[in-house]
Amino acid sequence: MHNIKEKQDVARFHVNRVRKPQDGYYFQFHYHLPNDQYEEHLPLADIYWGGKDTPPKWMS
């Protein structure tokens, strides 16, 4: 998210693909705030993809 008037980022949103052992793959949605230079991951949701052997092809 970007504040147009201030010309600064308010928050940055990301998604990671995570493989939890014996459980399968998840999409991990999170965001970052500028107060710590966007270092800390603030979780939004983990969405189960399924499949212990096949990762999701979300970038293709």
TrEMBL record:
Any Pfam family hit: YpjP
InterPro entries (UniProt xref): YpjP
Domain of life: Bacteria
Name recorded for this polypeptide: Uncharacterized protein
Native source species: Gracilibacillus boraciitolerans JCM 21714
